[in-house]
Design goal:
The chain is an alpha/beta fold and 330 residues long. It is 45% helix and 16% strand.
Length: 330
């Protein structure tokens, strides 16, 4: 069977081709009765708009680019952060009849390819996720004129509108909790120093220690379980007498628990442990992990709404509060 055309729909509805075009492209200038007749003809004939032609009329593609500046192995790892963001973004866009285009540039060539794709008009907007400080892509995408919103505070000088969790406040609450439990030698496992979440959580860790005159002790991880285990080994070597550790992600905290168990340290008797994220696995560690809950889905949902409804380039950031969840590890 031949694909139904605009002309066929117009003949069935008894209207002009231009009227059908306005209806299928979402114009609000058509009489409700005529609109109903056109939509009835569309359904009866099984008409499907040509997406390329429709884009020329509406200047919209119906797609939003989700640019994750991590290699695929990291995105599709056991870290539930990425899957939750991707799932939430996809669901929110589906609800407004749009789709997500997932792009994971992990090399200069990949970054150039994403820039060309966006500049070519293939998406109506871009969400940036998991940015690193030296990444030139945010500035390049902003120059295309396509709306850009960042998931998390941008580190680079290119500053698109953004939404984030209160990373500083969450880390501060974690360390204040450890101090209130009588812990005196509190270390941290921080994330990559070129990422805003890691920098903010490190600042939040240091603030209450500075207020009480205590020194900080940090080892660097990369938000993975393996890096948390290695960093915990380094911290025990640097200060065998430490009695608490704040890890900047739950996966790193889980890795720290593994190392502490191997070293014969009891949690929380010898060393208290706090994580950050409140992933599902944190409830099932041994012992269950005290952590800082961040609203991952709410942040992702808000970013989609910012793009869909339009956001000014100089809009104030949206920051969601975090919450300390106390369990047996402290």
């Amino acid at each position: 069977m031949k694909r139904p055309t605009l002309e066929a729909v117009a003949a069935r509805a008894g209207v002009s081709r231009a009227t059908v075009s306005r209806v299928v492209n979402g114009s609000d200038t058509v009489n409700p009765g005529i609109r109903a007749a056109v939509l009835r003809a569309v359904e009866e004939l099984g008409y499907v708009p040509n997406s390329a032609a429709r884009s020329l009329v509406t200047q919209r593609t119906g797609s939003i680019g989700l640019v994750v500046s991590e290699p695929p192995a990291r995105v599709f790892s056991d870290d539930p952060f990425f899957s939750q963001v991707i799932r939430t973004v996809s669901q929110e866009l589906e609800a407004v009849d749009r789709q997500v285009v997932l792009m994971m540039p992990s090399s200069p060539a990949g970054q150039a390819r994403v820039e060309r794709y966006v500049a070519g008009g293939h998406v109506d907007g871009v969400i940036l996720l998991s940015q690193h400080g030296a990444d030139p892509l945010p500035a390049a995408l902003l120059r295309t004129g396509v709306p850009v919103v960042s998931h998390g505070r941008p580190v680079s000088t290119a500053r698109p509108p953004y939404c984030d969790a209160d990373n500083i406040g969450g880390a501060r609450a974690a360390v204040q909790h450890l101090l209130s439990r009588g812990r005196r030698r509190i270390a941290t496992i921080s994330g990559p120093p070129d990422m805003s979440a890691a920098l903010d959580r490190l600042a939040g860790y240091r603030e209450p220690l500075s207020d009480t005159g205590r020194r900080s002790l940090a080892a660097i991880g990369d938000f993975t379980r393996e890096s948390g285990a290695a960093a915990m080994s380094q911290l025990l070597e640097d200060d065998p007498g430490l009695d608490a550790v704040f890890a900047a992600s739950d996966l790193m905290a889980i890795g720290a628990l593994y190392t502490l168990r191997k070293a014969g340290r009891r949690v929380p008797d010898d060393v208290a442990v706090v994580g950050f994220d409140d992933i599902d696995a944190s409830r099932f560690t041994d012992p269950p992990l005290t952590t800082v809950r961040q609203p991952i889905a709410e942040v992702a949902r808000t970013i989609v709404q910012m793009l869909v409804h339009g956001v000014d380039d100089k809009a104030e950031p949206v920051i969601f509060p975090t919450e300390l969840i106390v369990r047996d590890s402290t």
